[in-house]
Structures are given as structure tokens and as C-alpha cells.
């Protein structure tokens, strides 16, 4: 029998301990987060290049007109601040004073600190808290304290939280509202898998969350400060043994994938229609993201193309050495690359199938692509606007040189371009389509029978029953 959840005190108000997960570019907007808060939960506006609107209410597409990457980066930061402020204002109005509104930022996004400070400065009294992950956001607590808002770090291990706590968060302990444990094997989007963890061997989240609570207790943090379980959460009845469990302390739950399929969700109808068709195993944990992080998305033609591109890859040497005794005669226009005999034959075969351009990677390999794909890769790299603090695809970095110091990697992709496209109605098979690994449950859950799409309020009410 499902125990049920009790409301918690958050930011001086009583809310249900169910949180809408913040989802990237234009996906967790004011419609979804405002409705989630109005239903009594914690809605989350994504402050990652959120949409702005013209006087007629139409979305202002983020077009970059400046010539240099640094100038385009400044344009991007301004778009991000303006969009997030508008989304927060609208979400706060929609909430009608119920629930709470958080914002979500990625610490590894370009200009993260400028964006966060710019948004909080202009939304005082509306934002209850800031969730932040993708990296080690040491300055998060300091910024939150300055603006008088709570902070909710997103981590994937007790070890990561311990480092954050000791270096920074213990100095602003009163503003720590919760710690989000984002399971690196189950959550959608970018995941915090460490080099010590096997992406193919998921670990039970319970011992990891128990270890997190023990670490929090070592720091003197009250059990009343919730740990928010994020990733793989669908039916709360499946987590019954976590609720009121003295080993874990206060627990709340974050839902990232389920809110995608609601009336208020801003994603396209094509995207919504695809979700109930997914099967177990249709979500791929991959490492093609230009962030360098693992991430989880629907295993669609977009990802399969990236897989195929990386498979058309050979190592080379700048001179004849060891097994590299054969000079490459396809795809490199007279440049001297030495390869093995087997790789020479493979490259000739790929060339015969139209993959006639060899592009150099930072790892002294060549990937073979069509001329059309080569031109698109080069254009996307040239159009970079610095959406990440470091980008392997374009070699942009948010530093004085605006460079990672490494060769741009053609095995990756422009994440800003694809997320903007799919977030505004672009084809779902030709773009990155983030989703959590439990997305296949849409097909199995009777709540969605006969094509039913709930409102956010109906979804939150359903969740609170345990289903």
C-alpha cells in the first residue's frame, strides 16, 4: 500500500515534494512550470537560452548577427537573460501564489554566472530556488546567498557533494534547500558518470543516496533538508520504501520525462506522439555531446548517424612508423597520412560509398564523411556562439583565448543548433531528442491509454496517488 507524501515547507510555503525537472532549451518553459506550481508542486523554468516574445506574443528566434564568436557569445548571454526573465515572470503569474518556481541552469553553459546573476537580479521575489548541475558549481551558494534565494545542487555521488560542501556550500548552509541526486544511468539529458563508473553497469540508487545522506549528516545538515531523487522516477509506489525511511531522511522526487507529455508541455505534437511509441532500450546513454559528459537521448537516426560516423574512423601517423606503412590515398587531398594496410582498404571502401572527405580529430584519427556532411560540420563550427563553457565540437572555451587549445572534433555536433531546432518544432529524427530511460513506460502506463494527454494538474494529482 502506498504510504503517500506529506507537504514540505519550501521557501516559507507549503508545497508537495514533487519537482518538475528542468529541461534544456525551451522545453521547461512558463507553461509547464507555472502549471506545475499551480498544482502545488515545485515548477522549474529552464534558464538555458529560454524563449522571449515579440509584442504579438510570437517567439523571437535566436539569430546571431555578429561576426566574431565573442560578440555572438555576448548576444547569446543577453538572449538567455531576457528569455529566462520573461519565462519566470509568466510562470510566477500562472502559479497564482501556489507551489514554488525554481530556475535551472547548467554550470557548464557559456556565461552561466552572468546569466544566473542577470536573471536573479530582475526576478527578485519570484524565484524560490536555483537548481544547478553539469559540472562543479562552487559559486552557486555564494550567488544564491547574495540574491536571497535557495540553491539545490545537482550531483550524482556523495563524493561530489562532499567536495562542494567543504569548499563552498558550508559557508552558505542556510540557503541549501535540497540536494538533487540525479542518477547517472537513469536520468535524461546530461549525466554525471565519473571515470570510475561503468556506463554499462547501472548501480542501485539506494546505497548511493544513503551514502549521500551520511555525507550530509557529517556536514551537520539536518535530515529535514530533502534529497531529491531524480532519474527513473515514474510511479511513486515503486519508491514506497524510500518514504519515511530513517536511513534516508526527507525525500522528494523529481519528474523530468513525464511532464513532456502534458497539454501544457511546449514540445511539438510530433515529439509528443513519439513518446508513447518508445520501447525499453530505445534510450541511448552516449558520449557524443560536445560537453564531454555522457547523456541520454532517444536512439534515433540523429544518434545513429553519429555512431556510424565514428565507426568510419582510422588512426594515422604523420610518418611511416610501426604498422603505419601505407600512405593514405583517399579523402585527404595529397596530405601525408600513414595508416595500416587494413585501414587503407577500409578508407578506400568508404570512399567508394561516397564518404570521400577525411576529417582530422583531436585524437590523431580521421573520420570519413560525405562532402555535404563535411560542409555542414564546418559551417556549424564556424557559426559557434559559445553556448558552452568548453565545446569539443567547435573548440570554443569561455576564456581569454576563447579556445580549448584542442582541434575541433567532427565526431560531435552543435548542441545549441539541434536543441533549438527540436524545441521549436524541428524534425525529431534529425535532432537530439533527450529523454530519461523510463520513457518507455508511457506505452505501458494505463493513464495514457487511447492517446490520453493529461493537463499538468491531472498529472500531478495522478503522481500523488502513487501512480
Layout of helices and strands, plus pairs?
Elements: E1 8-10, E2 13-15, E3 18-20, H1 30-38, E4 42-46, E5 52-53, E6 59-60, H2 69-95, E7 100-106, H3 112-122, E8 129-133, H4 140-147, E9 150-155, H5 158-167, E10 179-182, E11 189-191, H6 205-218, E12 227-230, E13 251-255, H7 269-274, E14 283-286, E15 294-298, H8 301-311, E16 313-315, E17 326-327, E18 338-339, H9 341-352, E19 357-360, E20 365-369, H10 371-382, H11 415-423, H12 441-444, H13 456-464
Parallel strand pairs: 3-13, 4-7, 7-8, 8-9, 9-10, 10-12, 12-13
Antiparallel strand pairs: 1-2, 5-6, 11-15, 14-15, 16-20, 17-18, 19-20
Helix pairs in contact: 1-2, 2-3, 5-6
Brief sketch in words of this structure:
The chain is of the alpha/beta class. It has helices at residues 30-38, 69-95, 112-122, 140-147, 158-167, 205-218, 269-274, 301-311, 341-352, 371-382, 415-423, 441-444, 456-464, and strands at residues 8-10, 13-15, 18-20, 42-46, 52-53, 59-60, 100-106, 129-133, 150-155, 179-182, 189-191, 227-230, 251-255, 283-286, 294-298, 313-315, 326-327, 338-339, 357-360, 365-369.
Structure explained in plain terms:
The protein is of the alpha/beta class. The strands form 6 sheets. Strands 3-13-12-10-9-8-7-4 form an 8-stranded parallel sheet. Strands 11-15-14 form a 3-stranded antiparallel sheet, with no helix packed on it.
| Count of discrete domains | 2
Strand order of the largest sheet: 3-13-12-10-9-8-7-4
Strand content: 15-25%
> CATH superfamily of the largest domain, called what?
Aldolase class I
Q: Outline the low-pLDDT stretches.
A: none
> Structural class of the helices, strands and pairings?
alpha/beta
The total strand number stands at: 20
Helix content: 25-40%
Q: What is the third-level CATH name, the topology of the largest domain?
A: TIM Barrel
Rg (CA only):
23 Å
